[in-house]
Amino acid sequence: MVTFHPLDYAMSQICWVVCIPLTVRAFLMNHLAALAHDYDITVMANAADFEFLVPFGPSVRGVPIGIERKISPLRDLVCLYRLACIFQTRGFKAVHSVTPKAGLLAMTAACLMRVPVRIHWFTGQVWATRSGAMRVLLKGLDRLTAALATHLLVDSPSQVDFLVSQGVAPREKMRVLAQGSICGVDTVRFHPDDSARAEVRAKLGLPQEALVFLFVGRCTFDKGLLDLARAFEALCSERDDVYLVIVGPDEEGVFPAMLRLCPRAADRVRRLDYTDVPERVMAAADVFCLPSYREGFGSVVIEAGAAGIPSIGSRIYGVTDAIQDGITGLLHKPHDALDLLAKMRHMVQDPDLRSTMGSRARARAEQEFAQDVVTAALLNYYECMVGSCIDEA
Question: Are 106 and 97 in contact (CB under 8 A)?
């Protein structure tokens, strides 16, 4: 287990704050590896240990902090107090937060303790699909987070436009790294792989010649999966060679609801609760589907693109940055299963289109969204916009 000695705080310059360690493992590992060459870094998360930080050596260390994703006023206040105490006594020069709850608590505590550089990274808004009092509350909390931060990063250009239109933050305060996304895509890990295609299909009982649609992500109603089920049911009534694979944790009981909507096609639906090799599942698919109602960027789209497959996604902010309509994939009207069906049908009927779009998606992932491109942009951001503040502090 990685332990944290109190004296180590004295040399720390940057503190990253997240709710769960999965955020670090999924999005920040490459960034931390690069930043560790120039900064001493502390990572705070709701974790029992930080074994995943071992490869970075002593320049990156972990501290457990009880941030919960759900609203819990008493526990949130306790966490805020602890963050403030740590920031006050340990002398961080910069605090960088990711995800809404971590951002609200970290930016509040850092502002109270006068940490000179306070960065929050917006990766999507949970209130975008809400209404009524909850939308007002959550939107107000994002506004507060933005006001308390000295710098804001956003993971897509269209999300910047949305935040400006909603009055969350001024455009001049926000910055998108490279062409967007929080971490880019590892184009060595995600790539076309004929061997993985054959093996995964055999394991899932998918005919080698079938046309496979794929969804990877958290299974929530906001992901538009019921629309996907309706469209797939209709498509299966037209063709007997199409299959659907759903990968990801079912947090809201979505999958049973999907099966109820496509009873005649249930035997052509496959589900994986979790995989630590999404690149292999993507290599086994023909078309990626993201019919979401809200997304900050849609990183899975560029991962699928790096694997050489085109995508169908909803025409919403975030997804429109990840999919070039008619070039690397197709966009459909959100909340519209019929339009989604039309786009799925188009992909099925035109194998040349799928091949061309898949090749273009791979090329775009390599040129604009490669992991090292986004990390280099973050390093430049720190050097140009944050480094001078740290040096002066």
Answer: yes
